[in-house]
Prior knowledge:
- Chain B: Its cofactor is thiamine diphosphate; Mg(2+).
- Chain B: It comes from Halorubrum salipaludis.
- Chain A is α+β, with helices and mostly antiparallel strands.
- Chain A has helices at 67-77, 106-118, 147-156, 177-187, and strands spanning 53-62, 82-89, 95-104, 122-127, 133-143, 160-164, 168-175, 192-197, 201-203.
- Chain A has four helices and nine strands; from the N terminus they run βαββαββαββαββ.
- Chain A is elongated, with a radius of gyration of 29 Å.
- By secondary structure, chain B is α/β, with parallel strands linked by helices.
- Chain B has three domains: 10-204, Rossmann fold (3-Layer(aba) Sandwich), CATH 3.40.50.970; 228-389, Rossmann fold, CATH 3.40.50; 404-586, Rossmann fold (3-Layer(aba) Sandwich).
- Helices cover 39% and strands 14% of the residues of chain B.
- Chains A and B meet through helix 1 and helix 2 of A and helix 13 of B.
- Bound molecules: thiamine diphosphate (TPP) and magnesium ion.
Amino acid sequence: MSGDSSAADVPEADSRPAPSEQPAPEERDHPEGRRNLEGIRIDPVLEAEHESRRAVISALVEDEPGVLARVSGLVSRRQFNIESLTVGPTTVEGHSRITMVVEETDPGIDQIEKQMAKLKPVISVGEVSGDAVTAELVLLKVEADDPAAVHAVTEMYDGRTLDAGPRTITVQLTGDEARIDDALDAFRQFGIIEIARTGQTALARGDTPTAPGEKPGTAGEPTTHDD
Amino acid sequence: MSDTAAQPRDDEAEDPDDAANSDGSAATDAGDPTDADGPAVSTGAESVVAALEAAGAETAFGVQGGAIMPVYDALYDSSIRHVTMAHEQGAAHAADAYGVVSGEPGLCMATSGPGATNLVTGIADADMDSDAMLALTGQVPTEFVGNDAFQETDTVGVTRPITKHNYFAHGADTVGDTVGEAFELSRAGRPGPTLVDLPKDVTQDETDETPGPATPPAGTDPDPNADPDAVEEAARAIEAAERPVCLFGGGVIKGDASDAARTFARTYGIPVTTTMPGIGSFPEDDDLCLSWAGMHGTGYANMAITHTDCLIAVGTRFDDRLTGGIDTFAPEAEVVHIDIDPAEISKNVHADYPLIGDAGRVLDQLTAAVREAPDAEAWRERCAEWKETYPLTYATPEDEPLKPQFVVEAFDEATDDDTIVTTGVGQHQMWASQFWTYTEPRTWISSHGLGTMGYGVPAAVGARVAADAMGEPDRDVVCFDGDGSFLMTMQELSVAVREDLDLTIAVLNNEYIGMVRQWQDAFYEGRHMASDYTWMPEFDKLAEAFGALGLRVDDYDEVAPAVEEALEYDGPAVIDFHVDPEENVLPMVPSGGANGKFATAEDQL
Lengths: 227, 605
Ligand SMILES: Cc1ncc(C[n+]2csc(CCOP(=O)(O)OP(=O)(O)O)c2C)c(N)n1
Ligand SMILES: [Mg+2]
């Protein structure tokens, strides 16, 4: 500093209270109310925390490079709790379907849908109603010590044997989550060596479109996909 | 230039015939807005420039380099003014600030690899603050992409999470349309940065496809009006409120809704707080105005926001620096939330009355729908009392050095209301927002969401260029910077000197990265790890070395003359204000704390 500041240099003191003279936090009124972590005012009478639940979200997207990276980047960046994500073609040329199974609270599910909707290649997105048809494909390699028993369990769960060798048997299972879980429990007795699961995919029942506003196209039954 | 030598070149683009060809047509048609098809083009790069011109871009900020050279070459014949910056980060911040001041998307350009990665901070900054901006980056030729070619970076991958959308250009025939779309998308709905990555072959290849009129992609330009039934419900809640408060965010400014916001609040006598990005949306000298709320907001704004029973929030995303702990944020308020982005509704704070639409249009709807003003006389008095009880003041003891707040006030006094203020990030930024009385939108230009040190100087460059382009050369541009922040981007001073930009940089030099020092004193037992900046150069001399006016101020009585000299100086001036290193920013709501429990003294932290 160059030189001492003389009294004349210093501006006149503000006549209003200096910060240190203002009431301290404990001297002020504070409201009783509170919000929960989701920013919802807590109604003391009706205090209900949102439970997380499983939801199937279906999105119709433009089949352009990077669309999967955009969706998966969004999910990880915003810490959405996701169980599985599948992609495949639709009946419309140039459109793909992304099916996500998430475990979130209602506000969380709402956020996922809204954030997805903001991605430019996303045409429409929505939760598939609770009674949607869902299925997953599982490939399972088990020990072949007791081939007859493996075969019986495979039959019981409408599976198919894809490969049977001297030491291992590989089967294919399909079905909704509950069915797959039951089947895996049953196969565990043989010793599961490897497993590959596609994740759940889903369609709405009846006339309801799976993604909001979705219309059938003319691409027919797609036989190939290159994503 | 080693980087150009190493690039594979397409010799055809250098063909003198092509160049002659493009010259004639592009130059004559460039300025004609009635020609829907735009000027004839001969290369992808010319198509890019034609698209920019057609979209109304007037100014670009950038740095040259191998992969972007074709685009720069096409700019040679363009009406677009290019401002060469010292660093690409500066180009992005300048473009961002240019956009805020002008209301048009900013435009920045860089080459591939390091050029593109240097833009990243500025793009992320624009993304956090929802600023419309288009970044154009050069890329290695398409056939080299993925081979780790010289100066190859996956720019689309790197910038995906920090852009509204980004594009990889696929061919010379379509690149112009892509650029036009990206420009329009940046300002459609909720604004934000977009980027187009331009492989060199795409810009060099021949095409005669003139870009068509640019429109944002389908579904990205939402309905500006809110659902009328929802408006009616919100209006009933506002009429019934006893303690209503408006919270005007940056969306009010971006949506040019300041007039609508002022009309609404004044018609119904509703006190107003703003967020930091919302500063200027409502005049701070109005009796209804409580200034801005949040971590370093005014005590009275934080009291009002804590005690309100009806919060009318417009164009805000309820950032944590605003809300403090969510549990104690406006805990007794019904929330009316107006926003153009549905994803912001109930993201952080639950909206009891969500109104999705354009800020101005929905405020007009609401002004029309409210039938009688809420009965809030007692509440307005309470707010006025808080203003008396918790004024923004600072002490000036004789035995302490020059106070930074005094410098901010001195500048405010010496300048007109339309003066544009830019800042770095830190304590000086907070003082610049607290001790200046903002009355107009687009006069407070700062890095809010990202908090980017170094934003101030390049933003001042962009703001000055914008004001000049708008025919407002008499507006002052003042940058309040910190010593640490100034050191990050002060090289852009060379641009201000070269372009003869009339701006003033006030470095509030506390020889600390002061905000860190303040937190160390409050939360880390005063252990000044890496925050002591006594090694700073002499900024006045440095300014002179750049060719700017350089002044140094240590005492109160030197302040007014130096401010006057700098403002009068026709060109860039830097004043190195040596201010009290120990001064703290108050009031303060500690991170995650309750807004109503703001500290007014250090020992309360
Ligand atoms: C690019 C960047 N690096 C680090 C920080 C962390 N940071 C926040 S405020 C601050 C201090 C800034 O110092 P200075 O510019 O001198 O301003 P002061 O607080 O002293 O006014 C720092 C280091 C940041 N915000 N931005
Ligand atoms: Mg400092």
